[in-house]
Design goal:
Layout: E1 4-5, H1 17-32, E2 40-43, E3 49-52, H2 54-60, H3 65-72, H4 75-84, E4 90-93, E5 100-108, E6 114-122, E7 128-135
Parallel strand pairs: 1-5, 3-7
Antiparallel strand pairs: 2-3, 4-5, 5-6, 6-7
Length: about 140
């Protein structure tokens, strides 16, 4: 899997959860402003199909503040990856649900920090959801 080199840095902010969350919401509000319905980003790899964000925000709040901070720092880089990356992801069937495919993209921030973006696709409807963002260690 070839990582996509994003043109943006990690989100700025101190180690405070409020700072990082506020910066991530500012980026997300720009995406939300473009539609009256569910916020989405169009993916270059999936031929400009929509990637929805609703599952990501629910999934994020399952974790502690420390993990949320770590993941939210890569939110802007993730948007850049989704919109511009044409690199092939690692794709496999979801072991927990046979009706889903998990696509895992690799990305590099401007500072060359590796992170992963996981998108789940419903096989029946073809809908795609941003599932998770995490730094690769």
């Amino acid at each position: 899997m070839i990582p996509y080199h994003t043109h943006v840095s990690k989100l700025a902010g101190t180690r405070s959860y409020k700072d990082i969350y506020r910066n991530a919401l500012a980026v997300y509000s720009q995406v939300k402003r473009k539609t009256k319905r569910q916020p989405y980003a169009r993916s270059a790899y999936f031929n400009k199909q929509k990637i929805f964000f609703t599952f990501f925000w629910k999934h994020l709040f399952d974790y502690s503040h420390k993990v949320r901070i770590e993941r939210l720092k890569y939110f802007e880089a993730t948007l850049d990856l989704i919109k511009n990356s044409k690199n092939a992801p690692e794709s496999k069937d979801n072991p927990n649900n046979i009706d889903e495919i998990l696509h895992r993209f690799a990305g590099l921030t401007k500072e060359k920090e590796l992170f992963m973006v996981q998108i789940k696709e419903n096989k029946r409807t073809g809908k795609k959801f941003l599932m998770s963002i995490f730094p690769f260690k």
